[in-house]
Amino acid sequence: MSTHNALLAAACALSLFSSAALAETPNLGKVISPEEVAPWDISVSPDGAGLPPGSGTPMQGEAVYASKCLACHGEKGAGKPNDALVGGIGSLAGDKPALKTVGSFWPYATTIFDYVRRSMPYNESKTLTNDELYAVAAYILQLNGIIGENDTMNAQTLPKVRMPNRDGFVAFVPAIPK
Amino acid sequence: MGHRKSKGATIDAVAGNGLLDRRVFLGGTAMAAATAGMILPDSATADPLAVEPWMKTPGAAFVPYGQPSGYENKVVRTFTTAPGTTGTGTSRTPHHLLNGMITPNGLHFERHHSGIPDINPDAHRLVIHGLVKRPLLFTLDDLTRYPTESRIAFIECGGNGQLLYQKEPAQVGVQQIQGQVSCAEWTGVKLAVLLQEAGVDPKAKWILAEGADAAGMSRSLPLAEIMQDALIALYQNGERVRPANGYPMRLLLPGYEGNMNVKWLRRIKLTEGPTMTRDETSRYTITLPDGKSLQFVFPQECKSVITRPSPGLTMKEPGVYEITGLAWSGYGKIAKVEISADGGKSWAPAALQEPVLSKALTRFRMAWRWNGGPAVLQSRATDDIGYVQPTREKMIADRGSRTIYHSNAVTTWGVSEKGEVKHVYA
Q1: Bridge partners, B256 (sequence order)
Q2: Which residues share a beta bridge with B115?
Q3: Second label for B108, Cα 20 to 30 Å away, from A24, A56, A168, B189?
Q4: Span B197-226, mean pLDDT?
Q5: What are chain A's domains?
Q6: What is residue A177's predicted lDDT score, i.e. its pLDDT?
Q7: B113, B281, B291 ranked by CB distance to A111: nearest
Q8: Is B33 left (phi over 0), alpha (psi -120 to 50) or beta?
Q9: Residues 6+ apart with CB under 8 A from B247
Q10: The predicted structure's pLDDT at residue B44
Q11: A56 CA: distance to closest CA in chain B (Å)
Q12: Measured between CB atoms, which of B83, B84, B137 is closest to A32?
């Protein structure tokens, strides 16, 4: 074998060795069971995956809203000082400013549960019970005229709620190289 | 000198209203002064050189962590907060007072959805679960033992530049209009390494990334697109990531909308479809004139802005100035930045400061002779996929102005005869 070929062979061997070495990672993660992840696994998908047991009605939600939400979001979700939660359905197109609320803009009812559970109330997030979360979601939906006063929200009914702007989104297409 | 002077006078102009070939800066001060038509100052009028107190007595003691000169105390972020909150909102980088491509850590822009958490690094955990073979939990100590990589990358808020959607030009400067972009050297562990250890189920097409802040800020990210570049950043410009930027760890997705670069990263869940969190439905979507909204607007598209001259930096006298600014693209490298001093009638290419890196801020520079008359300054960037930064008119023609997101239009500065610089629409 010439010196050149020997070097080549050595280089090949080395590159094989190094690619094998690259795949070898520290593997320091501890395996964790779904039960152990559960306290953190708070996300809810549009199909309802992740929704916990429990239920609530608009009337129950009104009481939760009065004590936990009203100070920031106003009477009946009218807004001020923070976001309005109600109204604006039909305002997205046209020349007048759009009023984007849960009712007029949010495409999935499950997002209400997901967002309120993780982020609200602002000063004490992740403190509402599952029943309170279903109830306050029901109240906001009812204020928007999306569900009736006597409808109950739970893991089965909430994903089935059809939001007015459900078909209002189009995936962005990135530019392609010219 | 006579030869250089006459040569300069004939070849230096590269576009209208005083844009000059950058070589004027390389030809020596005599040439620059001559081309500017400036009168050399009379040395007799200069103040006598004083022997100042700091030249005569020992200076200050060592400090453990250094701070800028006290005279630089106006080089600060500005911020606006949501009603009733002190830490929810946005802070902006003072680009008009900085130079170079790297943003100092204390001046990096911020966007918080529920303040800045005070995270004990020993108690912080990162969980990777969902559609994986082995759900895994990592401590910060664990991750610190992994091989690391560095990446100089910009992060830009999806809402940066939103004032350009307003009907009238907001009478504020570059910090208020374009201050929600910054650039740092981020160092950390490749997300792909941890996902490989967890074993990704082929059904997984998205990941949900979630923060440990009180908002539990969360975004769905397309797995295939982010795998190549995603970094779990532990260091920012050499030191541990600042609390305001995600301490002890954040996601870094070079070129992608700032909000996707989830700070205080605590959980990654692999899923089949997007979770449709609030911040990818109700927020960070572009509502078009017909009422439909563009969703999953991931890249921050090609953009630039002149940082100097800019509003607040009044020019005292006619003469030669450097026009400088920043350009960036979420698609790749900046290929070209053109400057106009006559509101877009004529353009000339600026010099790009090396290094020009993919998905990093790129500093550009141009020589300009201000003759004391009105001028309209603009920069227009083109990236290496050929995307050209749009005019404001084109951006609004394409997308309308019913949104606050992803404004990447040309920003225009008007210069008056007095040397005052204002935000204008051209």
Answers
A1: B299
A2: none
A3: B189
A4: 98
A5: 55-160 (1.10.760.10)
A6: 85
A7: B281
A8: alpha
A9: B119, B121, B240, B241, B264
A10: 61
A11: 21
A12: B137
Contact A30, B127 (CB under 8 A): no
Dump pLDDT digits (tens) for A12-39: 444 433 444 456 999 999 999 999 999 9
pLDDT tens column, B151-171: 999 999 999 999 999 999 999
Q: Please identify, in words, the CATH class of the domain defined by B125-285.
A: alpha beta
Q: In chain A, which residues have their Cβ closer than 8 Å to the Cβ of B267?
A: 40-41
| Chain A residue numbers touching B215 (CB-CB < 8 A) | 118-119, 125
Nearest CA in chain B to A28: B142
Nearest by CB to residue B387, choosing from A100, A172, A175, is A175
Measured CA to CA, the distance from residue B219 to residue B226 in angstroms comes to: 13
Computed on alpha carbons and rounded to an integer, the radius of gyration of chain A in Å comes to: 26
Q: How many CB atoms lie within 10 A of CB B127?
A: 22
* pTM exceeds cut of 0.95: no
Q: Which amino acid is at A4?
A: H
Mean pLDDT for B32-50 is: 60
Residue B403 has a pLDDT of 96
Angstroms from A6 CA to nearest CA on chain B: 32
- For residue B121, what pLDDT band results from cuts at 50, 70 and 90? very high
The whole-number pLDDT of residue B22 equals 84
Q: Return the structure tokens found at A24.
A: 């070898």
Number of Cβ within 10 Å of residue A58's Cβ equals: 23
* pLDDT of the residue at B150: 98
The minimal CB distance from B281 to the residues A25, A43, A106 is found for A106
CA distance B319 to A72: 54
| pLDDT-derived band at B12, boundaries 50, 70, 90 | confident
CB-CB neighbours of A47 under 10 Å: 12
Domain ranges of chain B: 125-285
Structure tokens at A140: 């906001």
Establish whether this prediction's ipTM goes over 0.85: yes
- Higher pLDDT pick, B424 / A94: B424
Instruction: Tell me what the pLDDT averaged over chain B comes to.
Output: 94
User: What three-state secondary structure class fits B198?
Assistant: helix
Q: Which two tokens stand for residue A72?
A: 């920031």
Distance CA B133, CA A127 (A): 32
Give the strands of the sheet with B89-92, arranged side by side: B78-81, B89-92, B110-112
pLDDT of B11 reads 56
How far apart are alpha carbons B340 and B227 in whole angstroms? 39
Pick A82's closest partner by Cβ from B82, B146, B294. B82
The strand pairing partners of B321, in sequence order, are B368
Band the pLDDT of A40: cuts 50, 70, 90: very high
- In this structure, the number of other CB atoms found within 10 A of the CB of residue A55 comes to 17
Interchain proximity A41–B386, CB inside 8 Å: no
CB-CB neighbours of B338 under 10 Å: 22
Spell out which residues of chain B touch residue A171, defining contact as CB-CB under 8 Å: 294-296
For chain B, give the percent of residues with pLDDT over 90: 91
Q: How many CB pairs under 8 A join A and B?
A: 164
In a mutational test of the A interface, the residue from B80, B145, B285 whose CB has the highest number of chain A CBs within 10 Å is: B285
CA distance A85 to A87: 7
Q: Report in angstroms the alpha-carbon separations of B355 from B77, B151, B188, B255.
A: 26, 13, 21, 17
Taking the CB of residue B110, how many other CB atoms lie within 10 A of it? 23
